[in-house]
Amino acid sequence: MRQKRSIPFEITGVDSLGQGVSKLSDKVTFIPKTTVGDTGEAEIMAERKGVVFAKATSFSKFSDHRIKPECIHFDTCPSCHFQHVPYEKEIEFKKESYAKLFRKLPLPEIEVISAPRRFHYRNRIQLHYSLKTKLIGMRDSQTFRITPIPKCIIGEPEVLKEIQRLYENDNWLKEAPRAPIDGHVEIYWIENQLKVSWNKSYSEGGFTQVFAEMNKKLKDVLLSEWKIPAQSDLLDLFGGNGNLSNRLNYSKRLCVDMYRKVPGEDFLNQDLYEENALRNVIKEIAKRKLDVKHLLLDPPRSGLKNLKEWVDALKPETIAYVSCDPHTLARDLMALEGYDLKRAFLIDFFPSTFHFESFIILERKR
Ligand SMILES: C[S@@+](CC[C@H](N)C(=O)[O-])C[C@H]1O[C@@H](n2cnc3c(N)ncnc32)[C@H](O)[C@@H]1O
């Protein structure tokens, strides 16, 4: 049997995944659910590329800012990362990691739009299950271990009620399809209706933002801070059902998405990661006689790796890039030439977790 190995830790920073960072031993150590000022002992879980991933087993001192998590599952659930610190600290850590990722770019002061609450906000939650182990819950992306979370507090009340019902008397075991043996279920509260879908590869009804009030705040910021002159044409890439651009002051728009099939002449179905995507969109722009001067994009976590090609071809005067992964956002913007980063926002769409939306406005240099 593998011997458990312990190391002492002293947390001096928090990384972009919300993990405490200790440099007490000769190898940098990452420990989830710890915060600056915590000290103690941790069990080594894995070692990769000269760094250690560990789990706190005992504390000799707690950080001054540590608080009691609201959720009873916090210590074991892989989905929340920040319930052990006050909300202001969570924002501070997120802001620091955002700034750090952009250290090679001239990022303006990050403007924070915080959330009205930390819990009971998600309109949609995905649980993973295994018919073999008879477990359903949140799945750790590294170990694939499933943690049951019957009393989760992240979802909207109707979502949580359904989660509880699925756990009661093992209802989920009776309702889950017999195959595949490992799967997932999405519980979604939309327009006062509950939708439960098993093993769909994409969200029921297509993508929608998970936190309604934050979605409104993001759209308000776009409308007030992205100064696009009236009567200009707009290209909305990864536009879904047009959520972000619907209220903007454009003359004509082309909204492009692969999964949403929204009827209407300003929508185009196109896989934007496909080899001919740029050529196809340019053809559509010409066909529809658009003069695209402003580009809005809101890709999935993978970002848009060849953004430079799009920008070189379209030469937009301004770009509004909304991103749920600041790593790919920084990568994509780093490649651009001839644009100034004018505004940078941190929009806290996913409180209690390390995730957030970043939104950057760029202008072509004159
Ligand atoms: C973060 S969502 C943003 C959607 C929209 N802007 C909104 O606010 O609702 C990303 C969008 O990218 C779309 N998408 C994912 N992969 C795509 C691909 N390969 N090509 C085009 N669209 C894609 C999804 O359908 C989804 O609507």
Percent helix, as a range, is 10-25%
Distance between the termini: 66 Å
SS element count, helices: 7
Portion in beta strands: 25-35%
Q: Would you tell me the overall average pLDDT?
A: 95
Bound molecules: S-adenosylmethionine
Low-confidence stretches: none
The outline comes out as globular
The radius of gyration computed from the alpha-carbon positions, rounded to a whole number of angstroms, is 22 Å
- One letter per element, helices H and strands E, the order comes to EEEEEHEEEEHHEEHEEEHEHEHEE
Structural class: alpha/beta
Spatial order of the strands forming the largest sheet: 6-17-18-16-15-12-13-14
Count of extended strands: 18
The biggest sheet amounts to: 8 strands, mixed
Polypeptide structure, described:
The protein is an alpha/beta fold and 366 residues long. The chain has seven helices and 18 strands. It has an eight-stranded mixed beta sheet, sandwiched between helices. It binds S-adenosylmethionine. The site of S-adenosylmethionine has 20 residues, from loops.
Write a brief structural summary.
With 366 residues, this protein is of the alpha/beta class. It is built from 7 helices and 18 strands.
